[in-house]
């Protein structure tokens, strides 16, 4: 509808005005359940340990997103960053105890980033080409993107029977070449002498 389209346009403009440079690309190191704790919508909660650039000090993010897995590369709004809520109001991300676990941020969905597509509450996934700890791309990336392959090293292919000659073999080869050169020179001299004799006899 026109109203819905207008609201989405307004939301996207609002998100674009707010910098998402404080958000971080992260990778989930591991996750575990939060007992019987549920979200407001009745979904099971998971505590995820996420590396957002400091592997020695990962953060914990509690979520009900069903699409997160160990190894998933995601976008995190860490404590101290800001986001736009459902009413279009800017809110700060703070540490919050969820299901008895302190959550130090939140997973971003497409709506938070101003990307097209993606459902509300579904954690966005980014390709491995997005560096851990970096800011997320301004638009939805292609998940098929890969890091550019390193050029293959040039390998010199030697002949099947090539081998390194010993000092004696090199000396012998040089002697044979000298003899061949001397023999060729002598043969040429003999041919020249024979030609001279023919001319004299004529």
Description of the structure:
There is one protein chain. By secondary structure, the protein is an alpha+beta fold. Helix content is 27%, strand content 24%. A five-stranded antiparallel β-sheet has the order 3-2-1-4-9, with no helix packed on it. Strands 5-6 form a two-stranded antiparallel ribbon. The protein has a two-stranded antiparallel ribbon with strand order 7-8. The longest helix has 35 residues, at 167-201. The termini are far apart.
Shape: rod-shaped
Largest sheet: 5 strands, antiparallel
Q: How many strands?
A: 9
Helix content: 25-40%
By oligomeric state, this entry counts as single chain
Roughly what fraction of the amino acids lie in strands? 15-25%
Low-confidence runs of at least 5 consecutive residues: 1-17, 197-202
The overall pLDDT average reads 79
Helix count, DSSP H or I runs of 4 or more residues:
3
Global Rg: 37 Å
Pattern of helices and strands = HEEEEEEEEEHH
> N- to C-terminal separation?
116 Å
Give me the side-by-side strand order of the main sheet: 3-2-1-4-9
Mind sketching the topology for me?
Blueprint: H1 2-17, E1 24-38, E2 44-51, E3 59-63, E4 73-78, E5 82-84, E6 90-92, E7 96-98, E8 101-103, E9 105-107, H2 110-113, H3 167-201
Antiparallel strand pairs: 1-2, 1-4, 2-3, 4-9, 5-6, 7-8
């Amino acid at each position: 509808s026109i109203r819905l389209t207008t609201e989405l346009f307004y939301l996207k403009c609002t998100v674009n005005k707010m910098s998402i440079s404080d958000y971080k690309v992260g990778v989930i190191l591991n996750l575990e359940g939060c007992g019987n704790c549920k979200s407001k919508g009745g979904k099971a909660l998971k505590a995820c340990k996420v590396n957002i650039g400091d592997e020695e000090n990962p953060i914990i993010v509690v979520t009900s997103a069903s699409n997160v897995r160990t190894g998933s590369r995601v976008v995190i709004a860490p404590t101290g960053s800001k986001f736009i809520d459902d009413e279009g109001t800017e809110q700060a991300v703070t540490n919050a105890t969820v299901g008895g676990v302190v959550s130090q941020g939140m997973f971003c969905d497409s709506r938070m980033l101003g990307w097209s597509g993606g459902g509300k509450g579904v954690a966005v996934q980014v390709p491995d080409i997005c560096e851990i700890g970096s800011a997320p791309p301004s638009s939805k990336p292609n998940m098929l993107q890969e890091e550019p392959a390193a050029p293959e090293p040039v390998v010199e292919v030697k002949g099947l029977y090539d081998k390194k000659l010993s000092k004696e073999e090199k000396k012998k080869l040089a002697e044979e070449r000298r003899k061949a050169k001397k023999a060729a020179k002598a043969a040429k001299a003999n041919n020249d002498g024979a030609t001279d004799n023919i001319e004299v006899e004529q």
